[in-house]
Request: fold
Amino acid sequence: MLTCKTIEDFVLEGQRVFIRVDYNVPLDEEGNITDDVRIRRSLPTVNYALDHGGKVILASHLGRPKGKPDPRLSLKPAAVRLSRFLGKEVKFASDCVGPAVEKGVQGLRPGEVMLLENLRFHPGETKNDPQFAQSLARLADVYINDAFGTAHRKHASTYGIVEFVARAAIGFLMKKEIGYFNKAFINPNRPLLAIIGGAKISTKVGIMEALLEKVDKMVVSGAMAFTFYRYLGWSTGTSLVEEEMLETAGRVIRKAWKGGVKLYFPVDLVVARKMVPQAESRIVPCQEIPEGWMGLDIGPASITLFGEVVGGSETIIWNGPMGVFELDKFKKGTLSVARAIATVPALSIAGGGDTDVAIHEAGVTDQITYISTGGGAFLELLEKGTLPALEVLKKEGGLG
Ligand code: AMP
Reply:
């Protein structure tokens, strides 16, 4: 089981509490924040540190500035937004390391907070450069990692820094993510169901194989299903198929069979000749995709089938859409699955950017038990059962 030391395990009074947050927020063309959920999710940890007398230093990345300053990717707007949420001034440092920043941090009083400029303005961040990590560590008496979204990265602020700080632990967001992960996989209420959708087997096969060792049932949908159909010798028209993954599809089927895991594929499909908004579409059984047509969503029989599978499950993990849900014409399958999950009393955990968008669009955000804040991190945690940012805490005695 993943268990970690948390921020609650340390005395913070008068300490410089360096919190790695994930403020990688979407911006519009004028640089305005269009969705501040990531900032809001950091509040329990930030407030806790402030309430316990910490001098709070926040660090994050934003976008991909490629190791040099880019004013369009400044975290300044995040400082303004955070200040509104906290109801107090958030000081902003125009860099994240160096003598000026150290001096600014020295001047912080307990209960004050400072946000550092984008970590990725320095090449040392993504390279996990020890010198850069050490420079960050100079700002910290206590290091807290609360950036679940980047916990799968071995970067200076998520990984390298731990070696140079005296005390390290996780914050409340990280704790919540790990807590739900443990709930789903350590003695879960069964049946345990995984729903895996999306475009390509190649990006999900590791997760599917890892999950097959844990779950009772697995739904495989989205374009990925077509590679399985092809493996079974069915015609798939012009649907997206990964020819080089046919053997892999076979391996997944055999693994499910050996492990007694029930596998479900779409039984019918919405097909069209082109992937365009106004395409003429038809519903066909999955064995009857016409020549020149492609599957772009699951059909009504599959919606019913998946609804029944969901209804018979006590714990549900979901990642990936059932079809091309970006187009109105092909979103029904994905939204129906979101609604089906929302209506059952099971523990439901969803993750990944598309899945998150679909749940919002279906209007069922509040009825899903937990929506992970990590895309890549969520998938890697499902696949490997741990993440580099957690492992390094374990090595340094922070985990366990
Ligand atoms: P992934 O990143 O692997 O989770 O894949 C998400 C993408 O898969 C979305 O952009 C969907 O539009 C796409 N997708 C899902 N089903 C299909 C399909 N039947 N044909 C083509 N693309 C699909």
In short: The chain has two domains: 7-174+386-395, 190-345.
